[in-house]
Amino acid sequence: MNRIKLGRRVIDENSNPYIIAEIGVNHECSISKAKKLIFKAKMGGADAAKFQTYKAELITSKNSPSYWDTSKEKTKSQFKLFKKYDHFNKSDYVKLFKYCKSLNIDFASTPFDHEAVDMLDPLVSYFKVSSSDITNYPLLKKIASKKKPVLLSTGASSLLEIKNALNILKSHKCRNIVVMHCILSYPANDKNANLGMINDLKIKFPKNIIGYSDHTLPDEEMTNMYTSYVLGAKVLEKHFTLNKKNKGNDHYHSMDFKDLKKLKKKIIKANEIIGIKEKKHLKIESNSRKFARRSIVMKFDMKKNSIIKKVNIICKRPGTGISPIYLNKVIGKRIKRSLREDHILKWNDLK
Length: 351
Hints:
12 helices, two-stranded antiparallel sheet, elongated, 12 strands, 351 residues, eight-stranded parallel beta sheet, TIM Barrel, Type Iii Antifreeze Protein Isoform Hplc 12
């Protein structure tokens, strides 16, 4: 069975999902706001509070155009947007790591450069690779060198690009990899979520746990996140905010505390419904097996030593006599004694 250890938990095909509250840079470079977000994530039932660690100069050139909805986030330059939120340094991340530890929630962050990988390494139990870096082989090799589990987002990727990224990670001794379905669009419309790809990833990468990183606008029922879990995603990630009405950046497509609570509640209910995954009959079905199934029953009165023919019998409830699966063995047998119509046939009735 596929399994992977992420922070405090071991995730496999039968476990509850590992839920990541992707704070990203929704803290807007405020330690106090970051701590509030961590606290709310913990209270909402998340397993991890995750950040993004980058410096604008190392992630983008100064003339890189936007790729997000500029009606929601009006900044049209990647460099200018990233520069707004790249102020946290190592001491800040150490503070957030320690705060997470005090609340028993996993600390995580996505590194976007080699320096960030080294800085985060003592603080994280696994690394997240952004969809945008799936072809950034130097960064993949750097992350793999830390020999920790990796969550690999696959937004905007072809199957070949995913396979190549996995091969790079594996060839550098990184074996524990979660393949994350993702649509790299901010925000992604529901019709573009394409959650059916989760099943395809399960088929194409049977040795990997499959997850889902969501960029759709959350509805009241957290439909996309919930559906992704039902379809088999075992690691669920979504941006997280204190207030979805906040302007700009990732707030507009984030979930908040209420959304997270709702998702957690629905997953718990889903687990009750999904139950045992190995098909077998249950103890609570014992009476049904006995009384709702059928037995071979006498259709007419028959005298002792008569030979049972197909015309003499019928299959009726309850299933306390000879099962219809033995019909061919019963036909042609003699009866030991006279039997009345509607008699439920038993083996000791036959010679």
